[in-house]
Structure formats: structure tokens, C-alpha cells
Amino acid sequence: MSQTNGEYKYLGKPRPLVEGRQKVMGRAQYVSDIQLPRMLYARPLLSPYAHAKITEIDKSEAETIEGVVAVLTAEDLPTHDRVITSRTSSILAKGETLWVGQPVAVVVAESDAIATDALEMVFIDYDPLPAVVDMDEAIKPDSPQIWPHGLPKEEMDMASLHGEVVKGDEEDEKEKFNNVHAENHFSYGDLDAAWAAADVVIERSYRTNMVHQGYMEPHAAIADPDPLGDGLTLYSSTQGQHQVRSDVARQMRLPEHKVIVKPMTVGGGFGAKYGIYDPLAAAVALTVGQPVRLQLSRSEDFLSTMPAPAMRVQLKTGVTKEGKLTAMQARVFTDNGAFSFNHGGLMATLMGSTYKWDAVQISTYEIYTHKPPVGAYRAPGAPQAAFAVEGNMDAMGRELGVDRLDFRLKNAVTDGDKTGTGRPMPNNLGLRQCLEAAKAHPLWQNSKNGDGVGLAVGAWPTFMEAAEAICRVDTDGRVRVNVGSVDISGVNSSFVLVAAEILGVSPDDVDIIQDDTTGAYGPGSGGSKVAYSVSGAVRDAANQVKQQLLEAAAEEFEAAADDVVIEEGEAFVRGVPDRKVGIGQLVRKARRTAGPGPVAAEGKASPPEAGAAFAVQLVKLSIDEVTGMIKADQLVTIQDVGFALNPMMVEGQIMGGAIQSLSMGLYEAMVYDEDGQLLSGSFMDYALPRIDNSPTLDTIMIENHSPHGPFGMRGIGEPPISAAAAAVTSAILDLTGVQMQEIPVRPEALWQAINQ
Amino acid sequence: MSQTNGEYKYLGKPRPLVEGRQKVMGRAQYVSDIQLPRMLYARPLLSPYAHAKITEIDKSEAETIEGVVAVLTAEDLPTHDRVITSRTSSILAKGETLWVGQPVAVVVAESDAIATDALEMVFIDYDPLPAVVDMDEAIKPDSPQIWPHGLPKEEMDMASLHGEVVKGDEEDEKEKFNNVHAENHFSYGDLDAAWAAADVVIERSYRTNMVHQGYMEPHAAIADPDPLGDGLTLYSSTQGQHQVRSDVARQMRLPEHKVIVKPMTVGGGFGAKYGIYDPLAAAVALTVGQPVRLQLSRSEDFLSTMPAPAMRVQLKTGVTKEGKLTAMQARVFTDNGAFSFNHGGLMATLMGSTYKWDAVQISTYEIYTHKPPVGAYRAPGAPQAAFAVEGNMDAMGRELGVDRLDFRLKNAVTDGDKTGTGRPMPNNLGLRQCLEAAKAHPLWQNSKNGDGVGLAVGAWPTFMEAAEAICRVDTDGRVRVNVGSVDISGVNSSFVLVAAEILGVSPDDVDIIQDDTTGAYGPGSGGSKVAYSVSGAVRDAANQVKQQLLEAAAEEFEAAADDVVIEEGEAFVRGVPDRKVGIGQLVRKARRTAGPGPVAAEGKASPPEAGAAFAVQLVKLSIDEVTGMIKADQLVTIQDVGFALNPMMVEGQIMGGAIQSLSMGLYEAMVYDEDGQLLSGSFMDYALPRIDNSPTLDTIMIENHSPHGPFGMRGIGEPPISAAAAAVTSAILDLTGVQMQEIPVRPEALWQAINQ
Predict the structure, then answer these.
(1) Residue B489 sits in the same domain as residue B459
(2) Which ipTM was obtained for this model?
(3) B478: closest chain A residue by CA
(4) Are B497 and B400 members of one domain?
(5) pTM of the predicted structure, to 2 decimals
(6) Nearest chain B residue (CA) to A544
(7) pLDDT in tens, B492-501
């Protein structure tokens, strides 16, 4: 359901995915569809130990296999540093392995099958060492240190993929934990006074599990070395060709322009596809001097990529008896696995972004363990933050005996409020509208307490970046728009509407061309920033092109450009619709000698402020009290989308995100044993939701225009994953009176909690 | 030698070919370097008869060969019309063949070798018919008609590839010839009065032979059908991706945007690479539904492509005893082979473009014969026009007893004069400067009549077209420029200087990217128009980008943009060179939130007037009087280049063109026997000049700025081929007193003429 805007012909009206036919017919070009002459196939050999010394690597037997080109170890590769960022964690281990799944060697062969077979013939002697798998163990003073001499400098904050880096104070003398690579402390307000004002104080400890992004297409890259220089071209399944380029260039010590990244169709990204294996593919290809494809199997992908971290959030909140929130104090522990990553700034931002507080103090701790390095997963931290904050809201609300929804409405952030870091929120926030819509929704209206309806609020700051687009009209009237962004969420199906709307052509006559890194610049597809940033550049380019067409038509008709109208790809003078000229014909004429020239323009955009977005999610559950099995019956997402450029795409994004969030609440976890072995490393063991355990989905798009988003839009990809996991435990609490403090809620845990 | 301009740092200074290393190392990407998955190989089966009825085609045996996918004839292909333009003459013959070499069938196989073998197993029954091979026979009233029912409509004028179409009056009741598909009549001035004023009248008939463009790389194309739609992508060895696109789209009845042409590195074009075999490759690929490569052998290329036509020019000119030219009357007969083409407008333009005449009357006749269709060859018509006009100039000069050079100087065109069609010439003509430079040249100065020095003047109107370019700066300071033109002559090596000069970076830091037909629009590489048209677009885009950089730097330095200077890729405030910021860094900063955005711009150009160019060529010959063997000792080209953007490229172009022209005068001819069989169909028989029969080359670039050419430049690729062939016969006349009226001058013909 969309509240579309009557002023537009195409914008705001649902239209199917532009590449839908391609994808359905198996013709979209994924990395594995690329065949390069002389291409070789690489497979990584992964560590079977969470922590071990590598005492010997014997390649000799593998190297004798027919078709094996090389067996490479860290010493053989031209990488600049073994580790610089988590994103380059695929670079081979040297001397020691730090998690089960860390790449130790690479076999390069003439076929994927030969490479796979040869993996078993590379003999590596390991000397196993004690592994620290659990983050609560890792932070203890007597725990072995994962990086006793420190990790090579790591500057990446989670938020940097999404927008600006948010950092708090780094010093905290009071408490020191072991294996913490970064701590940040955020606060504002008079905490003592806020606690003093509180009548009810709730303190809880929430635990979330490591979850995998669960994309369909495992990581894949082809690196094709430039035979003349030291550069290379990468064909990558990536959300951000420019980020991949930077990582690879830095690892290979190449100027950035010597790395050309061609972003291919992405079979699911969800934050994980910023190029984990690209530097390794590049290093291998430059070493063997031939194109190399490196495509993971599902099992390799589970073991060696960058899932979302497990977190523990200790949260204490206070509220007056009138239901006004006073103080929030939190400690967030994040299990980063073997390399550093940082969700701290985002967690602090998110935890304080939904409600007004008098005072906030949040400390975040980034912890090493002998597990795979973690990374971004759609709205990183948002489900975890909502799980904790909404859990305390529910608990406080029950203690006060107030209506859950009214309690939230009373404290909801509005313009001028701060995020959890103390920074100001953007303008024209839509949380109140979302809550009002939830209140009016039949599921809420027709339910009473105890019916098993959960309610949770999620926030996502959304981000933005400068972007560029080229727009051209061809001689047959075809419109082409080049962008520098990757479509992982249907954005191209919105861009066609932007161009079509402005130019007065059918969206069927618009192509979006995704440039490689030598072309248009655009942001990576993360942080819900792509449509928000790139739509403006498309609009700018299309507006310039439209002006060129109007002027060409004006000359043709001997009229003023202001009097010319373009509809359905034909120009005419307002009021004289009988005499029409196709825009392709105008393009031909513009190219005449001494004419204005080809009809084309470069457009730019750089939004000055984000369009923060909220989602309110309602979940209706039923529970089998004998087994603890939980069944989600209905999932409602009410989201402030600002303005839905293409409501069909937005609705699809909301549904997908909502299901992923629900699944975090009910199903998904990467489970490790005490030795750091992954127990849920396949889709047989790792529980993704399927159609038979998915609820009815309901989507309400609130169109509360964002001041700086093109056409009033907001970033929409991440908010829908924020709150449903929290709504699950809210519903369980509503149904059973038991507040579960770990997600996913496993049936046996629920059964035990109920029967305690 | 170049008269470079001191005001530029890079422009006007010689710099080597940007892709030189690629080419020398064998890494430039030609069509044959492209390997597509499931690609098939096609070979054409060519008619062995100049004229025959096809009575039966038996494919059955060929189709049984292992690896043969299909044997296709005209009936099998989805082409719209068998023939529309000469450029699509590769489309298979239907029922009848019209020249030796006309494609009759195509074998498609899994390898090129299998396809070649299978050609011999396709059995075609021909019923030979009378062939009309000679154009003088063809025009006779009783000659069989080549197209008794007319050719499918043909709209192409030679000049349309190069610029605007020039047409004269089409009616001429006085004289009708057989097998003429087009005649045009151009005239101005009072012819009767002009003849009456003449004291000396010379009438000659000049004959030129059919010559092949002699490129290194035979025609090649790969057509890759879009598996979802009815479109396709073509990888083509072409000078003009947009022309190929139009031809293929029209033949396949596709909208133009459904045909994407990727122009590859061209191994020599010289006017012949506008896509002769692309429509056939496209039709075959769409029929078999797989990618198909069609690459000709040298022999197939000689038999079935589009050489330059043989011509016969009947020329009568008059001059007063004071040496003032009065009247020119000409009939130009052009042997177009089996399809229509039209050099008429160009011939008329050219014949009257070097000297002032009181009155001109030129009639041109385009004639069909049973020979391959003809096409463009570098400055089409210019060598033929100069051969005739300069021949008469020499004859008149000798009759009058005047100095050849002074005679030409006295009558040389200047601003305000007309071409042979009566149209006005462009402004600031440089012929006089060229002649003055020739007069001052040591070869002229140190020779006396009878020394065997030939002199001839050539003209080329040059053309222009609208063009587009995108310019971007990357974060490491790399500059990229996208253009829509093909580099067959070193233009990219000039464009890098344009961008580098404007932006203040080293030319080594500039890449030129040649877009396919979905990208920047540019003219085809013909008519000496590419650098003239596209340089302006590059300049426009680079100027906009420079402004963006200056503004970013101004903000950085808190200075005015006008005070910022960029040198060697670094910006600084004028007078404060100690504080510098790299332009890559400025790009990073411009992309910041709420900043101006990516540093990039779209540029356009559409020159309003051509920059007509002249060449004066001097040839010094020696002749072995016993055998008639001619040895060219020295070849001097003096050319008005306007301004040499990159003198090394311009000099290379001049040398290449001069040698080709000399070779037309001395060596090259496609010789056919009376049955239309090509006798010189390989490089064993077709005499291209080699280093051991090439003279010393001397190049003088006159830099007489063109009013509308970027930086004062003129188109330079074609003028150097215009006059040397004529200078050969001029030198022979000077040495022997014999005026040869056919080129190439064969030794036996010369011996006979001398000994007559």
C-alpha cells in the first residue's frame, strides 16, 4: 500500500524490476558467467583450527597434479600487509591461524574441479594452540591474548561504509578488558540527576548471536592482470566497486586507477559484499600472470567471510512514574572475531535515536576472539540496538502499567532531539506518524494485551554521499543513464522512473548503465544511501538533458522553450499537440553542423543532510507450549519512506528486511563449539526462514517527505530489518509474560523459560 | 619539423603514441582477441563468377561435417533487404551473383578451420552469364544492364561518410549512358565567355585504377546476440561504430539502441572500415542464436570488400596567355562495381578547390560493372582529382612556358573563392603559404627543369560533426576522458595533450576511453573530421573540470578561484607554490557531504565551418630508360595543418598518406581479367610499397590557424594522400617530356611512351 503522489506520472507508481526478465531467464551476468581466455581457477585452503601454529606446508604433491598451476602461500603473494582491514582478511595466514576457516593457501588450477581435488593434496602441519571462542571469556584478564603484539593498524569503523565515522572518547580508566581493540564512550546530559528523577529503573543484559547475511551467491571475483602494466581488472560480486578498488590498490601498492573494478550482478549482498576475497584473487592473478577466478563454495563462504557480530548489551534505563524517560546507561560488547571492526559508534547512535532521554551514557567495547572477522549486515547494529532498547521499554512499560504504544509515542524523538552520541538528529522525523499508523492498524486495534502481539520501534540514521550520473538521449529516443552505484535493492528500477518522469518518456525507454570504476562515481550500496544520493544526480543530469531537448524543440517549432512539452517521447508546443517531433529526431538535429551538439549531460548530487528513517513493526505470534515452538502469524512493518520513488521496489525491500529481522529473532545463529568449530555451516544447519515458516507480511509506507531527499524520499533499505527481532520477544512477553533476553529465541530456551 | 607554439606546455610538442607499448607488445585488443563463450566461426563462400545465375545450392554434405553448425544462404537470414547500401554488400546473393567475390553462402562451425574446410563441401551450381567488367563497355547502349530493374534504393553519397552530402542537378538531357545509377551536374560562371577568354586550351583524359586500401587487418566482426531480446552486441574493427550500428539496425529492422557496437582496435582502416561484413555477422548470429565471429582471410578481403573506384576524368581547361585560368569543363566517370556509391559531389568539390576559375562545369557519372562495390579510401577522389587537374596545369604551364610553381601561386584559391560545386570555400585558406614553402624548399631551389622533380597541389575540404566528451578526475589524480570516436590515426595521442594542457597535468596521467555506442557520441573517423570535431568536446569538458578543481582548491586555500594555478597535477595559489594540494585530494574533498560532488563534466563541440586543408607535394624521380623502372628518390609534403596538436602524430599521418599517394602513382592496381577475375588478389600480386622502394620523406607543417578548429587545428589525415600520385606524373613529364595519363604508371607503359 502506498500513499502515492498525484503530481507525477511515473514516480511514486509501482513498476516491476527492470532486470526482472534477465534474472528470471538466467541471463543476468554474475561473476561466474564471465569466461576469460586463459582463465584459471583458485580455491582457498582453510584452516581447520581456530588457533594453531603453521609448522610446515608441503605443496609438492599437489603441484604434481595435472592441471595444477600453482599452490601459493602468504610468502608467494605480493600483498602489502597480511592484514590491513577486516575486508582483506582473506589474505593468507602467515605462521599462525586465528579462526576455523582462515585461508592458509590457495590452489590455482586449470579447472575448478582440479583445484578442489588438489586442495586435499596440500599437506599442512599445524600445532594447535588454545582458542578463545567466547567473548565473555576473551575479556577476562587471564585469557590468552589474540593479538599480543597488536593488529596491523586498522582504521575502519563500521559507519565508514555507511557514511561518516562516529567516535566517542577513547579513554576510560575505570575498567579495562582483555582482547578489546577499541572502546568508545559517548554521553550527554546530567546522568546523576536523570537517575535521581527516575521512579522505575530496569537493568537487563541482552545477547544476540552471530548471524550470516545468507546471500544466495557466495563470494566471487575474477582478477584479470593487465598484461602490460602492474594493474588489473576485477569482475566482482560487490556492493561497492570503489571500496573494492581502494582495498585492492592498497594491498597491492598500486595507484587506485590501476585497479579497475567491474561490478557484476550481485546475488545478494546485505552488507557483506564489499570485496572480502577480491584482494586475494588480485594477488593470486598478479602472481600467476593470468586471469583467475575465485568463487567460494557455500561451506567456504560460511567459514571465511564476515558475518554480523554477536553482541551483549548491558542496558539500564530509568523512567518517571508519569512515563517520561530519564536516563540510559549501556555497555555494548561486540564479538569481532579475529580482526578488528567497530560497531561502537553506530550502536551508540542507534540506541539513543528512537526516544528522548535526559541523559545518556554508552560505552562500547570491540573484542577479539578466535572466530571469523565480522562485518556489516544490513543496518549493522540496528536489530541489536532495538532488541535491547525495546526490551527495556517493554519492561518499563509493564512495570508502569502503561499502554506500550502510548508509552513510546510519549517519548518518541522529534525534530531537535539527539542521537545516542549526543549529535543532533536530522529534520522532519517521522517516528510519531509511524506509531500513530501502528496504533490505527487492525492488528493493533483488534488485539488486546496477552494476544501475542509484539511491538517494536527501529531506527536507521541513513547516510548519503556525493554521486554522479550521465544522461543521454539516443537517435531512436532511447534514454541512457550511467551511474556509479551497484543495484542490490532495485534502485535502478527507481532511477528509470526519475529519468522518465523528468524527460517525459516511458520508463521502458530508459536504460540504467552501471559503470565500472573508470566511469561515473557513486557511493557503495550500503547505509541506505544509494537511492538517496544517486537519484539526485540522475535528476540533475535528466533536467539538463530535458533543457537541451526543449531548446532543440523550440528551435524546431520556432517557439519558446518554456512553451514546449515532452510527453511519451514526443515534443510539441503546449496547446498544439498535432505537430509532434520525437526526441530521437531532436537528437539528430542537435547534432547537425554548428548545432548545440549531442544531447547529454553530467549531473551531480551531494545531499547535505540524511533523511533519518524509522520503522515500527508488529508481530503476532503463537507458541506451542508443549514444545516451545514459535509460529509467526503476521508481521506488519510501518515505515517512514519519505516518498516511495517506486513503491513496488520499496515494498519488496521492506518485506525482505522484515523477514530477515524476524529470522534473527526466531531462527538464525552461527553456532560454534568450544574449539571454534562452526556447527551451522550450511543451509542444512543454518536456519533461514522459508515460505512455510514465514508470516503474512503487511507493509505500510508513510510518506513523510525528507527535506533533502530527492522528491522527498528517504533511504529505505535498512529500517525494515531494525525492529522485528525485538518485536518477536515483545510478542513472547505479551503472550507468556516471559522476557527472553537472547535472540534467536530457541524453542527449548523458551520452553525452559516458560516452565521455570 | 613543426612550427610549434610557445604558449603551450604540452600542446604542439611531439609526444609518442599513447597505445604504442600496447601495440608493440601485441596487447592491443583486436576483434580476433575477443573470445566469447559458445562463440562460433563463420566463413563466407564467395562467388567464382562475375555474373551468374545460382541454380542450386546443396548444403547437405557440408552440414554432415562434425563441428559444422549451419550452412546459411540468403533465404535463411533475417535481413531486411538483400542490398540497401554498398556497405551492406556482404549480405548474401540471392539467385544471381554480380561479381567475383560476392558472398553466396556462409558456413558456421565450431572452429575457423572446420568452417574453412566445409566451404569446399558446399556445392553451388552456377549458370554463368555475360559479365561487363570494364566501365567504358558498361556505358555503351548495347551493354547488358547490371540492374535491369534497378537497385534497391540507395541514398548514400560518398560525402555522407565524411560530412554533408553534395549533390548537383540530376538531369542532363544531352547525353545518356547505360548502367549509370547517378549523374550530377555542377556549374557556375559563364562558360562560353570563359572559353572565349582562353588563349590555351588543354583537353586530356585521365585514368586511374581501382586500388585497395591495403590495411593490415582484414575485415572482422563478432556478433553476440542478446539472449533475451532481439538485439545484439557487435565487436567490430570499424572506424565508425555509429555508422555500423545504423546499417545493422536497418538491415535487421531493429531500433538503433538494440544494436550495441563496441569498436575494437583497428588494424588499418583508410576509409574501408565502416562495417562491410558487420550486417552479415549480425544476421548469422541472430539466426544461429550464438556469438559468431566472421573474420576474412586476406584473399577474401581482396575479393569482397570495397576498394577505391577506377575513374576516368575527361578534363578540358583554358588559360589566358598571361597565365590566368578561365574555364574548366569535366566529365568524371566512376566505376562503382556492382552496387551504387557516389563520388560525384566530392569530385566536383575537389576539382575546383585548388584554383580560381571564371567558369566551371563538371558532370559526374556513377557506373555499374560486374566488379566488387567500391567505397571510401582516404580522401576519396582527391588523388584522382589532383591527377587530372594538376595534369592539365602542367600541360597548360608547359604550353605557356611559365614556371610551374608561380603559375599555381598566381591562380591559387584564396578566401572568398568557390569549390568546383560553386559553394564558398571556408576561411583563411593556406594554399599560398604551402606553395611559398614549396618554392623555398631545397629540393625546389636546387632543381632545374628536367631534373625529374614533380610538383602537385592537393586539396581536402575536411569535414566536421558534433561530438561529445566526458572528462573526470580520479582520487589518485588520474584524468579520464571518454570519447565516442575511434582512433585510427593517433587522435587519442592528441586528446591527451588537450586534456593535460588545460588541466595542468602530465599527459602520462590522462587516459582516453573509447566508448561503445551506448556512451559518448562522436563522429566516424573519416573526412579528417575526428580530431577537428572531438578535440573541441575534450576541451570543453576539460575546461569545466578545471573550473571545478579551481573552485575546490579555492575553498581549500581560502583564496579566489582565479588565483589558483594547477601544475603537474597539483594546485596552489599563484605566488604561494610551497603549499600544494594534489588534484586527487581535491576530488576526494569535493565528494564530501554537501560538497560540490564528483569532479566530472560533459563537454560538447560542433564546429560551424570546416578548416579546408591543402598539401603541396614534390617528388624527385629517376627512371631507368632501358626498363622503364621508376625510382622515387625523395617525397616532400608541405601541408597546412592549422596547428599540430601533437606534431609526432601529424607527421606520422603525413608520411603515411604521402607514401600511399605515391604508391597509387607508381604501384597499386586491382587488375581484373575480361571475365572479372581479380588477378592481383594477394600481397604477392598487389604491389604495396615496401621500405626498399620508398623514398626519403620530408614533412613541412605549415601552421596557418583555422578559424574554427580547436587551437587553430585543421583536419590533417587526408590531405597528404591527395597530390603525390599527381606529382609522380609531373616528375615523369619533367624528366622525359612524356605526360602519362594513367596511374599507376607501369614501367612497360612508360617505356613504350618514351620510346614511341
Answers:
(1) no
(2) 0.93
(3) A257
(4) no
(5) 0.95
(6) B602
(7) 999 999 999 9
